[in-house]
Amino acid sequence: LRTPVSFTRISSRFTLHRRHPILHRDRRHVGVDYAAPAGTPVHAAGDARVVFVGRKGGYGRTVILGHGDGYSTLYAHLSRFARGLRRGARVHQGRVIGYVGRSGLATGPHLHYEFRIRGVHRDPLRVHLPAARPIAARYRHDFRRSARALLAQLDVLGRSQVAMGE
Fold it and tell me: What are the b/e assignments for 102-140, b being 16+ CB within 10 Å?
């Protein structure tokens, strides 16, 4: 997932120089802040293992996911964690892992989202995401059958004409 939360606006972008709104000092901002109403579900950006779930300084309630091949993502300022989320657990892309909040050093409800490759921070809005794994051979037949049915429905919709009054 490019964005792990349904958001209203980006309140702060990835930058190496930013005046911190609470500390009033210049600091790096190595993630993206997605403003959203408190309680909005936050989703795992990809299949992963939970590396950390708990409080982490100014980040407040935080989840860190390890996606393999050196990729990791961090989700901070959460109001709470998803029920049953534990260190070492496996999560699938799109699973709810927490909820937007304002824990830690936050001026309002938002998700602070970081993307790292081998520990190096990357701009989540610009990073090249790896291609998805191909569908396993044992599932391809079912996938193709489902896809054909959906494509047929789209084809019918594409041929529909709307009557316009004058």
Answer: bbbbbeebbbbbbbbeeeebbebeeeeeeeeeeeeeeee
